Amino acid sequence: MLLPAKAEVVRHLSRYRAWERVMLASPADPVVRHRFEDSGYSLCALMGKRCAREAADAADRYLRSGLVSYLREERREAPPLLRGRRASGRTGRRGPPGGRRSPAGR
After folding, report:
1. How far is CA 87 from CA 68, 78, 91, 95, in A?
2. Distance between CA atoms of residues 60 and 82, nearest Å
3. Dihedral through CA 77, CA 24, CA 21, CA 71, nearest 10?
4. How far apart are CA 69 and CA 61, in angstroms?
5. How far is it, in rounded angstroms, from Cα 83 to Cα 75?
6. What is the pLDDT of residues 18-58, one digit of tens each?
7. Could you give the angle at the alpha carbon of 66 between the alpha carbons of 57 and 55, nearest 5°?
8. Consecutive H or E run containing 6
């Protein structure tokens, strides 16, 4: 798993927090809402999360902890299905089951 530079995380997290404050001050302003959502999207992409709140929490944890402890925390929080895949290190088999091929595949 690649992780961003901490300076980038700080930059995106502070931008998200600043727009969050502005959004709370004027929630009806469409420009402010757009900027806030854009900063949340960027933070999600940077931290690999689906929700801006999760991304902000993950960014806080990443900045507070070291690389190894952050990865351990992330692994503990992963759904059980993903934990098993990460731990096994196996890749899925490719091709049809039992080695059979379709007539078109020759």
Report:
1. 16, 11, 11, 24
2. 23
3. 10
4. 9
5. 7
6. 999 999 999 999 999 999 999 999 999 999 999 999 999 99
7. 20
8. helix 6-25
d(CA 25, CA 19): 10
Q: Which 3-state string (H, E, C) describes 34-88?
A: HHHHHHHHHHHHHHCCCCHHHHHHHHHHHHHCCHHHHHHHHHHHCCHHHHHHHHH
Rounded Cα distance between 34 and 20, Å, is 11
Contact of 39 with 19, CB cutoff 8 Å: yes
Give me 28's structure tokens.
């009806």
In single-letter form, the type of residue at position 38 comes to: D
Tokens at residue 54, please?
Answer: 């999760």
AA identity, residue 60: D
* 52 vs 64: which has the higher pLDDT: 52
Write out the two tokens for 105: 């595949």
| 52: nearest Cα among 13, 22, 10, 78 | 13
